[in-house]
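note to self: dont lose this again. the chain is below, predicted strucutre after it. 145 aa total, dont forget to put it in the shared folder this time
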Amino acid sequence: MMSVPCAIVISKIRFPEEESPLTKGTALAPAYKDRESNAIRAISNGAIFGINLCIVIIAVLLAVTSLLGLVNGFLGWIFHFHGVEISAQRIASRVLYPLAWLIEILSRNLMLSSEAMGVKFIINEFAAFASFTRFRTHYNLGQDS
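---
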């Protein structure tokens, strides 16, 4: 969501308008229908909007994680017959392995880092940090890792 204004600015820089814009001189301020009458109502409306936004974000994260579980289950079911253990995170970690090498991660931690990068790319950074915790205890990584 945050990259949309940047994309518009970059597109205007790369492909500037050559003719007169259609909206030139017609700037309109948005009309607010629900003007709050006092500060308490404004604070409560802001809190309600924030809670609704938080619920939507949590619902989207749950939906994406559920769809990822479906994809991983489908991939596991297909490749189980061939004796291969595969998931979307594992595919992303193999694709991101050269990137981990290019950013000069230590060679002994290269595979673990690319797996964490794949988890972050597919799910989110919280799951990647959780996988780093699991890696740290499972592989007995030191402080420099």
